[in-house]
Amino acid sequence: MSSENSFHRISRKKACIISSAAALILLLLAFFNYAKSFTRLENAEPATKEQTEILSRVLDSYYPVQRYKGAKKLPYPVTPAELGVWSRSAVLIDASNGCILYEKNADDIIPPASITKLFVMYVVLDEIKKGNLTLDDIIPLPERSWAKNLPSDASRMGLGQGHIVTLRELLEGLSVTSGNDAAIAVAACVSGGTEQFIRRMNEECLKLGLTNTHFVEPSGYSEKNTTTARELAGFCRAYIDIFPEGLKLFHSLPSFSYPKKENLPDWPEYKNTQSWTKKNTNTLLGKLEGCDGIKTGYIDESGYNIALTCMRDGQRFISVTLGGPGNSTAEGNRTREHDGELLMEWAFESFADYIPSEHVPSEFAIAVPGSSDGKYAYLVPAWNEAVSVPHVLQGTARECAEKVTAGINYPEYVFGGVNAGTEYGSIEYKLGDALLERVPLVADRTMKQSGIFGRILDRLACLLF
Q1: Is the pLDDT of residue 1 over 60?
Q2: Is the pTM above the cut of 0.70?
Q3: How far apart are CA 336 and CA 231, in angstroms?
């Protein structure tokens, strides 16, 4: 009996050892599988809408200059170009990123003159975007908007008592013929009066960070309206970015005819009224390759102004010249054309865009062991705009841009959680050995640190992947 009992005891001991070993093996396999799960980055979940909104606010506070939607400096040093610009003040920017490629007295405060009407159109297009108006709405014309009630030297669309005019036609009149009467009619339609509308225009300027741009009336007739070339270039970039349809619908129109038959009421005094056609005040339309806008302006106190844009092969530049000389409209137009052609041809010859989204992923999944909020996050560029590439190598500017390389650097994992907007890597864009721009790679969400047991477990897991 004793030997039999001894045999059973040994058998139970072996079984216990085998069971323990099996359990240990299963535990090790489970832990190994758990550790390897951190390498399965394809299981990473995209950020939620709330996380994305939080990240955007954080990045705007961390990188206000780089993420600014107006005009800003190039991210690399350059020798300022010496161009024979005739105008008193000028700025040239790359529309894709707002980088200033050329400037001359860019912060001089100068009346924008009729370029003011761009801000009027910005407010109107915003109202349309919000669903408060449509382009086909018939707009009431207050008496003060009738052309006969304007100063004799004011530009006009030709509005009159009883005219039947759509909002689309008013915007065409604003853009092409620079009608002061159209500006007054639009202001009354949107805000009920000029003073209220001006308040809205100035509020929009502050939202866009334009501290030197201010208006006292909507047509541009007053010398008390103020802006700078730098701020105006930045505004034009925002305008085109938010309302790209404006270029095709309004600013690239070669001419405008008014009043048409449908604009006139069936009144005896309008029986013999003839329509007239005026050419766009932007004389570079149809003359300068790729030019599709945007607006001119002139009063004695400002000189000859023009905000100009051109697009060629997907590349867009914006220039603003203020205070152009000239003793007549013909001389002023020569100044605008000279400066506009000079700046645009130089821009297309000297710079081309490298588009990160065409070459580099927009996000990089990364493991986050030691976190209580999941296993993965994404690293994303803190900003993802085009890089303006200077033409410093042989070939064309476009060929230079094609030689840009992107060096992507980030760790295999980040232990103990991450914070939204915190940098954990970078992308370096280079042309040869020259660094054009370094963009931080930041966490797209916040993930808190786990408890001590979880951190110990995940630290051990890190040894296996």
Answers
A1: no
A2: yes
A3: 19
